[in-house]
Amino acid sequence: MDFDLFVIGGGSAGVRCARIAAGHGARVGVAEERFWGGTCVNVGCVPKKLLVQAGEYGAWAEDAAGFGWQIKKGPHDWAKLIAAKDREIGRLNGIYKRLLDNAGAKIFEARATFVDPHMLDVGGEHVTAERIVVATGGHPVRLPIPGAELGIISDDAFYLPHMPKRVAIIGSGYIAVEFAGIFAGLGAHVDLVYRQPLPLRGFDMDLRESLVEALGAQGITLHPGNRPVKLAADGDERVLTLSDGSALSADLVFFATGRAPATKDLGLDRVGVTLNEAGAVVVDQHLRTSQPHIYAMGDVTDRLNLTPVAIAEGHALADSLFGRNPRGISLHNVPTAVFSTPPIATCGLAEEQAAEHGPVDIYVSKFTPMRHTLSGRARRSMLKLVVDQVSQKVVGAHMLGEDAPEIMQGLAIAIVMGATKADFDRTIGIHPTAAEEFVTLRTRTRVAGVAKAAE
Questions:
Q1: What is the rounded distance in angstroms from the CA atom of residue 227 to the CA atom of residue 243?
Q2: 47, 87, 274, 405: which one has the fewest Cβ atoms less than 10 Å from its Cβ?
Q3: Do 157 and 191 lie in a common domain?
Q4: Are strands 125-134 and 252-255 parallel, antiparallel or unpaired?
Q5: Around 338, how many Cα atoms within 13 Å sit in the side-chain half-sphere?
Q6: How many Å apart are CA 287 and CA 133, to the nearest integer?
Q7: Dihedral, CA atoms, 214, 47, 86, 106, nearest 10 degrees?
Q8: Which residues contact 16 (CB under 8 A, 6 or more apart)?
Q9: Measured distance CA(251)–CA(243) in Å, rounded
């Protein structure tokens, strides 16, 4: 074989797997047809957070008056922001390639597809590999409605030539609520259209309700329980017709309606790799596909589509195959953040999930952050602990508020270790901070899951 391991995809999962495997002495090839670093680095979490921060600066300029500063907020220069973002992404692209070069992996800037179970066509060249990893990620999708081609997807949002004044966003997941905050923070009027009663399906209900309040406080117009029917052009304007019969006029319509695994035309059917109904590669706990020498990881498996999970999977597989250290990763108690405005962070079970297993004690705190007692901004924070009543272990922590992701990273360690409510209670808080609320919650708000226990 030409390679001990060949990785299809140069994103977070693929690069980590290839780099670590090469560091263990394996002969490694890796192919990427679009851009090194994948979605996260190029059209995902990294540039998105830079845009979120751009919106925050405008808010801080307004808030400064409450602290005695007279700052005149001028117009925002969208082109300058995008140029700065592009420079940073270019720098990160170079780092990813250098990491692979320095590790000794052979780089192919081409599309790779299966010829047979051990052979790949890589940009017209045939190569063979003992083991192959599919790490091709996913891509955003539009809804199948008339005129859908007139709207953009998240990939396009990072390269808009001009900042739109009116934006209609369809969806209510991570991408939808994050870009709603970005565009509103940069001065656009934003309409957010979604089918569910509340945004962020699957998240804790208190978080979802608090997010609705936060979105409204930013002036974002919400259209819950609604779905788009068609999209049309009226000159440069876009007209989005909704299921309730109303129509929204906008400069830009943004489909934030989910992502699909990038498995099309890879030749997986030719080599007997099983896909599920959504087109994702089916894997076992060791990341093996239905072909034992072919593995898959990251968003292409559509299990828990988070960059740190993909990186951890790549590292664990490389160690297992070539580092004499067989190991896997756990998908339980994985912390995550939504960079809405303000951000959300969570780890462990939502109240509704925990209550399915029996009684849980719920502790909730809602308050105005210290900063905004002077700024006057209508912004509230929400913190929540979900505690198993029998073991008293903290099985879920949730927060909406400034610095929530930074705070949750530390809490996640405690939750993964199995900390109890008593462990939280005996921890001294850092004052004055929002984070100290998590260790000073003494009064139980309510009990959930009692009916389940009675069954």
A1: 5
A2: 87
A3: yes
A4: unpaired
A5: 29
A6: 9
A7: -170
A8: 310, 311, 314, 315, 318
A9: 20
* DSSP, residue by residue, 311-363: HHHHHHHHHHHHSS-------SS--EEE--SS-EEEEE--HHHHHTTS-EEEE
Instruction: Quickly tell me which residue has 């679009």 as its tokens.
Output: 34
Cα(406)–Cα(333) distance, rounded to whole angstroms? 16
For the chain, helix (H) and strand (E) counts, in that order, are 13, 22
Q: Active-site residue 118, yes or no?
A: no
Verify that 243 and 313 share a domain, yes or no: no
> Both 20 and 101 in a single domain?
yes
Distance between CA atoms of residues 253 and 316, nearest Å: 40
User: Which amino acid makes up residue 431?
Assistant: H
Of 299, 312, 314, residue with least CA distance to 140: 299
DSSP code, position 256: -
Q: Buried b vs exposed e over 193-232: b needs ≥16 C-beta within 10 Å?
A: bbbeebbbeebbebbbebbbebbeebebebbeebebbebe
How many other C-beta atoms can be found within 10 angstroms of the C-beta atom of residue 315?
Answer: 19
pLDDT band at residue 452, thresholds of 50, 70 and 90?
Answer: low
Per-residue model confidence as pLDDT tens digits over 154-197: 999 999 999 999 999 999 999 999 999 999 999 999 999 999 99
Domain that holds residue 407: 342-454
The SS3 call for residue 396 is strand
Question: Model confidence over 3-46: pLDDT tens digits?
Answer: 999 999 999 999 999 999 999 999 999 999 999 999 999 999 99
Residue type, 408: M
Same domain for 192 and 135, yes or no, is: no
Phi, psi of 331 (to 5 degrees): -100, 10
Is position 55 within any domain?
yes
- Pair (162, 131) in one structural domain: no
The Cα–Cα gap between 21 and 24 comes to 5
The CATH number assigned to the domain holding 368 equals: 3.30.390.30
Q: How far apart are CA 379 and CA 62, in angstroms?
A: 14
